[in-house]
Design a protein that fits this description.
Belongs to the carnitine/choline acetyltransferase family. The protein is α+β, with helices and mostly antiparallel strands. It is built from 21 helices and 19 strands. The protein has 3 domains: 55-157, no CATH class; 254-465, Chloramphenicol Acetyltransferase (2-Layer Sandwich), CATH 3.30.559.70; 467-572 and 604-729, Chloramphenicol acetyltransferase-like domain (Chloramphenicol Acetyltransferase). The protein is globular, with a radius of gyration of 29 Å. 40% of the residues are buried.
Amino acid sequence: MAEAHQAVGFRASLTPDGAEAQLSAPVLQDIYLSGLRSWKRTLSRFWNDVLTGVFPASPLSWLFLFSAIQLAWSVQLDPSLGLMEKIKELLPDGGGQYHMLRGVLAGALFASCLWGALIFTLHVALRLLLSYHGWLQEPHGAMSSPTKTWLALVRIFSGRRPMLFSFQRSLPRQPVPSVQDTVRKYLESVRPILSEEDFDWTSVLAEEFLRLQASLLQWYLLLKSWWASNYVSDWWEEFVYLRSRNSLMVNSNYYMMDFLYVTPTPLQAARAGNAVHALLLFRHRLNRQEIPPYEKIFNSTRVPGAQRDYIRHLRDSRHVAVFHRGRFFRVGTHSRNGLLPPRALEQQFQRILDDPSPACPQEEHLAALTAAPSWFDKSFTLIVFSNGKLGLSVEHAWADCPIAGHMWEFTLATECFQLGYSTDGHCKGRPEPTLPQPQRLQWDLPDQIHPSITLALRGAKILSENIDCHVFPFSHFGKSFIRRCHLSSDSFVQTALQLAYFRDRGQFCLTYESAMTRLFLEGRTETVRSCTREACDFVRAMEDQEKTDPQRLVLFRVAVDKHQALLKAAMSGQGVDRHLFALYVVSRFLHLQTPFLDQVHAEQWQLSTSQIPVQQMHLFDVHNYPDYVSSGGGFGPADDHGYGVSYIFMGDDTITFHISSKKSSTKTDSHRLGQHIEDALLDVASLFQAGLHLKCRPRGLGEEDSGHGCGFLSSPTGGIKTSRTPTNF
């Protein structure tokens, strides 16, 4: 996602103007502190874990085991094989009247030790099972006997009804790849985009790095991987996000959008009431550890600092902050009876909308400070438009897109299908006129801050107005067609994106695709370098008039297979970029000059891509309610002359794209790339024409020429078109 921009800019946080003074401590000390933080987090969760059954067993299993031991003891059976008698001898002797109590205590201690040993065995067994990633290498739809056996064992050892942190300590640590393999994969990834001379020079730097510095830096990473929970994630959060001094708007934050085709109610306050209530229901389930996302999604904010920010997480909160027409309000979300119902929340939001009081001087633009370097600081911000549409702006440091996406899917489904609206568009239920009015926040703004507000507002406007954001649904085909091609839908689109970009710019570029590493403890993301030699060969074949469609199809399948291999490697901890990032951080701790790593982290990602995953299809009935599909979300470009491309597969026959670029660039145009993407997808689909019943369709009146006329028998005749007016973030 937007992390590509931060990944490029993180080097600034290690300069003398940034964090160099903080990195003067020995690297062993930082590794020690990293591990100490991990252990503190582990200990802080321990008691809650026991109570909520995070181990494969639950506290009730201890009671059952203790009762069974006492029952056996009462009928003269000793399941401890004499251990309980030895435990009794170690207990203080209080006389005959305490003899029975000593037996109970001995039984409790033995049961606790046995229970702990069984849990530890289950824990270790589950960790070993979850370290198996052979299923990633198997063809889609095929499952080998070892994988079937593995899956059955995982189900046995994982227990019933796992909760939020049930598998947290059973997840394996993310492995540190071989440095030789990482450098080899890196050189392979840049070969298609470098000239012969530049590639030879890069190879020389790589060989020098392997010979002089790699082994030392790798040793420190191996040490950290054994001591800390994850060898890369805490440094990634620290240097890529929290130490970044860029504006979070566009550069880091990402957005998510409403349903694509419908607005459940046109009433702004009603939509806000249901949406906020649904979010609070989600938080309630999260607090009870009934759902699997992330603990910092609520009650969290990014507190700014001079050199670095930090994430502050509160244990609880019973209000939301509301910003409207330059004014800030505090709205309570609970009453004595618990969570306020949607109609009561709608009433409170309507009171804010009806409040005629103006913003105080300088208060109106106070929020612009959050667009200065390091703000948009909340974990997420819900945006409700006057026509009832919803949007979400998400801060990136605390977690990645799938976490927020999980919450967003729940929110849209709950507020629409479960809470619902009355026939007049209001939330269901009755108002509560006895509720106190929302609290208007009063600000003490010294005169010295006024210039900062003005400067921040000017910067925010410049940044916002410079973004060309184009959102369009591609409805000619979707996941069902790609599935019939027996191909990965993500690899299909990623390979088509290489063709679209080449047609747009006439060259290949370094491409960033975000992949998840959540198979590992505290795993976050890894980069898939999607511009491969195989993808370039396919693109050249598509542009070569002498190549036949069968030849192109063979090359396309080879490119897709290569992308799948890279994606699986990234997911299993064998990617390139996080390892190189961690090596670079260690080199800066040690004050080592590493020209190879310097060059790696000076690269620009001119094409940054990501798929928005749909994780809870059971929440949406796409067959009976086909219009109730999310339009996904997007992010800003990682480079001044680059593109940010996000896409989401909606149902079986639609792919929605979000394309961003900067208007100040003379090399990019979001709408132009959008047309190239549409053309590229249809051109690739036409390669499968004979086997998958594609046909050329007549072009309708007023339909724009896209360079061809191929579509599905089951597709809409004219597709879906959107306004050519750019949409700003």
